[in-house]
Amino acid sequence: MDISERYDDWGPEKVLRVYDPKTGMQGFTVIDNTALGPGKGGIRMTSNVSVEEVARLARAMTWKNSLADLPFGGGKSGIIWDKRDKKQFKMKDDFIRAFSRAIKQECPEQYVSAPDINTSERQMQIFVKENGNFNSATGKPLKVCQKVNGKKSCGLPHELGSTGFGVSYATQEALKHKNLDLKGASIAIQGFGNVGTFTFKSLEEDGAKVVAVSDSKGVLYNPDGLSYKDVMKVKAKTRSVVNGKGRKLDSKKIFELPVDVLIPAAQPDVINKNNVGKIKAKVIVEAANIPMRLDIEKKLSKRILIVPDFVANAGGVISSYAEYIGKDSDYMQKLVKKKLTKNTHLVLNTAMKKNISPRQAAMKIATDRVRKAMIKRDKKN
Fold first, then answer.
1. Active-site entry in 40, 64, 76, 201
2. In contact, 295 and 320? CB cutoff 8 Å
């Protein structure tokens, strides 16, 4: 789909295509909607990123930030970069510098960047240094600090686990909604990266029983419960969770286990027509983006409570807001808990009262907030 076909009543307000002749850097920034605040969203660096892809992601950020009740609009960026190309691989930081210079006039008044695919706290530090404004990006390293309005402000990298913590709190709220006791519930986590590991850690600390985890090598399953500390040790030592204490299963089997909660926390489209009928979980919490297509989700919602992705995985952008206003990691964790608990409760209650799906409820809440902000802005102008 051409980007011109994506313009509607919401946006996008700006589409930037930038090129740096010296490095050969090509990139895009889409500022979708700024009624609630500057467009907020990460920079991804892949070989096939397109302006159309970035536009879709920017729109998703409009709804995610609105639902999280943050003073941010939606934005996203992409840089064409092939890590398999030796020359481009070495020029990664140069591409970030060139990109930062190219969109400097938009940051941070109209757009605030963050990490995404193939970018991390290192790239955010480079981006901010090149831009010259400390708030032009979030997700910076903890050690990167500066006085802003007379107060010391430091980075809050996503590596601190904000997204995973948020998924944990969304899960706990969903269990309450289903009248299931957290301490008696069984939980399976598909994917053991940053999000999956911190989700496990947080749930265990709050008394939950995680019975299954998986990575690319397979599933580790123990109906009596797994230990976060033990699984992390095994993963670090053997590079896979499957070598821990429990049964080793094929990766696909995690979707078929008799658990109360299933948390897909890795790739998109993992729940599909091939396994949708085999899922036994009572609750699905979408930690990953688009773990199933919307038609599959709609079908499953008739028998399973599903917390949508842009509700459950908003911990990262909430952390970004805490960093943006100069708060520390303790404040961030408290804010993530407060907002994820409140917003998940609001979405699930709205869905129940209006007899609609949680995704429909979440979209209604998000769009209503943006619409009101747009009307208020128009009146001022």
1. 76
2. no
Query: In the structure encoding, which two tokens stand for residue 129, read together?
Result: 């240094």
Q: Residue 203 above 70 pLDDT?
A: yes
Q: Structure tokens of 128? A: 């901010």
As assigned by CATH, the class of the 3-155 domain is alpha beta
30-37 mean pLDDT: 98
- Per-residue pLDDT reduced to its tens digit, 241-264: 999 999 999 999 999 999 999 999
- The span from the CA of 278 to the CA of 280, in Å, is 6
Distance in angstroms (rounded) separating the CA atoms of residues 106 and 350: 36
What's the count of helices (H) and strands (E) in the chain, helices before strands?
Answer: 12, 15
Is 76 one of the catalytic residues? Answer: yes
Question: Which is it for strands 247-249 and 111-112: parallel, antiparallel or unpaired?
Answer: unpaired
pTM here?
A: 0.93
Helices (H), the chain: 51-67, 86-90, 92-102, 121-131, 162-177, 194-205, 228-238, 294-300, 309-312, 315-324, 329-354, 358-380
Residue-level pLDDT at 158 = 85
Calpha distance 227→235 (Å, rounded): 12
Distance CA 237, CA 110 (A): 45
CB within 8 Å of 277: residues ≥ 6 apart: none
Residue ranges per structural domain of the chain: 3-155, 162-314
Query: pLDDT at position 150, please?
Result: 82
Check residue 5 and give its pLDDT.
Answer: 66
Which class in CATH covers the domain with range 162-314? alpha beta
Query: What are the phi and psi torsion angles at 209 (to 5°)?
Result: -115, 105
State the pLDDT confidence band at 184, using cuts at 50, 70 and 90: confident
- CATH topology identical between 3-155 and 162-314: yes
**With contact defined as beta carbons under 8 Å apart, do 181 and 206 qualify?**
no
∠ CA 191-194-198, nearest 5°, is 95
